[in-house]
Amino acid sequence: MSVLYWSHPSFRLHESAPDHPECGARLDAINDQLIAAGIEPWLMHRVAPAVTREQLERVHDVAYVDEIERVAGGCMTLQHLDRDTVIGPHSLEAARHAAGAVVAAVDAVMTSMPRRAFCAVRPPGHHATRNRAMGFCVYNNVAVGAAHALAVQGLERVAIVDFDVHHGNGTEDVFRHEPRVFMASAFEGSLWSTSDPQEPAPHNACWLDLPAGTRGRAYRARFAADLLPAIDAFAPQLLMISAGFDAHCADDISHLYLVEDDYAWITRELVALAERHCAGRLVSVLEGGYNLPALGRSVVAHLRALLE
Ligand SMILES: [Zn+2]
User: Which residues form the signal peptide (predicted)?
Assistant: First the structure.
């Protein structure tokens, strides 16, 4: 099995503030580990196209898309979209191609082989709501891809599994009233900074709210007991992943203690789920992961499992 690998030069050029954890060096760390691990020959590299207005407006308010184009389009120096979301001169191009990568990956796995794709994108997307950039995210890349799968590929059930250590609040904001999308998010509850902790999960979402200090064994047990059966019951036709690697024990942005083997296990379980329900169709999209060596090794573990 080979895996489609979507990237674009602008992803590396998207600037954040000095010492910002969401930096271009993240992609260098991934590329270094792909080469060191010797899995490059099995990746089918594709250059991401730019997203269209029509594709963005399925997910984001017209006024928000206008505002991002106005602010980011004329951006000559670094600017803050919110407290921790920073853009520079290359950010609009990167954001357009990041969302476009996921749309192209959806079309590819729906219409041809191989049926598995990874989008190595920056900026990440799962915190971006319909009308707000936040948490390093500008456009909600995975949501744009899922909306495309519904509108153009005619799917009736798309599942989005989010294993980034932060709650995928933006994706839930986009799809909370869309019964054709099911969202499963595993996150560290104490990091809840972008959602109201009093608010219950939407009807079409399943939350795995993990306490600080959770290690791989407990994580896997809860993932298997709570998350996987919920996705099985939904029986998706396409499985999408918000793949953040910031629950790694070396990542000091969180207090979970996963290791590379845990990401391999999660990925194998999701591949098996895609084989059961989706004819193997799976699109994985990079979100967080800020300890550079751990990020590179974890992405390799994820891709190795996708290649099996
Ligand atoms: Zn995260």
Answer: none
Burial zone of 24 (CB within 10 Å; 0-12 exposed, 13-18 middle, 19+ buried): middle
From the CB of residue 186, how many other CB atoms can be counted at a distance below 10 Å?
26
Q: For residue 153, give the nearest of 122, 125, 177, 180 by alpha carbon.
A: 180
| Catalytically active residues, by annotation | 127
pLDDT digits (tens, 9 = 90+) for 234-249: 999 999 999 999 999 9
Q: Under the phi-then-psi rule, with left for phi > 0, alpha for psi from -120 to 50, and beta for the rest, what region is 240? A: beta
The alpha carbon of 303 and the centre of ligand 1 are apart by a number of angstroms equal to: 19
Cα(292) to centroid of ligand 1, in Å? 14
- CATH code of domain 3-307: 3.40.800.20
Whole-angstrom distance, CA of residue 156 vs CA of residue 201 = 21
CB 134 within 8 A of CB 82: yes
For the chain, what percentages of helix, strand and coil (3-state, to nearest 5) are there? 45, 20, 40
Q: Is the dihedral of CA 167, 170, 175, 177 positive or negative?
A: positive
Distance 154 CA to ligand 1 centre (A): 30
Residue 226 to residue 208: CA distance in whole angstroms: 7
Q: Is the CB of residue 92 less than 8 Å from the CB of residue 8?
A: no
Q: Do the Cβ atoms of 24 and 290 come closer than 8 Å?
A: no
Both structure tokens of 87: 């853009």
pLDDT in tens, 256-281: 999 999 999 999 999 999 999 999 99
Long-range contacts at 272-277 (CB < 8 A, ≥ 24 apart): 273/228, 273/231, 273/232, 273/239, 274/115, 274/116, 274/239, 276/232, 277/232, 277/235, 277/236, 277/237, 277/239
- 209 Cα to the center of ligand 1, angstroms: 14
Q: With 90 as the cut, is the pLDDT of residue 196 above it?
A: no
